[in-house]
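To: structure desk
From: M.T.
Subject: fold request, one chain
Message: Could you run this one when you get a chance? Sequence is below, nothing fancy, just the single chain.
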Amino acid sequence: MANPQPDKFTKISNELLEAIIRTYMSNYEHRIFWLIVRKTYGYNKKSDWISQTQIVEETGIRKQHVSRTIKKLYNKNMIMKIENKLAIQKDYDLWELPKQVTSNPNGLPGKVTQTGSKVTQMGVKSNPNGGTPKKKYTKESIEYKISEYLFEKIQQNNPNHKKPNLESWSKFIDLMIRIDKRTPRGIKEVIDWCQADSFWHKNILSTSKLRDKFDQLVMNMGDKKQQTPDKIAGIEAYKDYKPETIDSKMPKGFKDSEQYKRIKKL
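Reply: Done. Structure tokens follow.
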């Protein structure tokens, strides 16, 4: 017989709890979201590394559905990814939720939608306060321009790449700027780097993937930049290395070596 103990509980604010109660989630989203709550707030942590295997074992959801469900919660901005750890986005005003019509006891459409807009008894949405219409991204918007920039870089690697819906792509750039606090310049720098990288240019083929892997890409960029001559095997360490002065510092006869050629590519 179950015997829950009152001294073992997950501490969560009533305000956040009430926001979750009002929020429609699918069966899989519901189970994974609450597992993340349990693994973070349940241990007084803001984030935690939760493997897919662990999620499968504790929710009973098949592995092939876990990754897709996490992506859905992430795209709704209900959860965050912090250096490969999962966390709850506690600012529920930032959740990107679709409108939902609920039912009242008589079986007729109810009044509350996911975003709080009103719905008439016939199910027709009425929005006396104007609500928040779906954001449109024009060709002049920074979100659209960055999306177009990524597509152009992809085309340089694969001229036959199918043109995407750039307005849909713009949504993820918007989330990166507005929610993740990325700068347009920083996003373009990461795009330049990943599309020039032999591995990542094959994997970052959408703004959704760019957002998902952004922190990992930044870390990889940092690792590559640290590969100065003092870290290449068989080369004397130059603490004050500068590309324009390296020729004068190289040992005699070194310019024809493979190491020298590698340095010049840095």
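Reply (cont.): The chain has three domains: 14-94, 142-225, 229-264. Let me know if you need anything else for the meeting.
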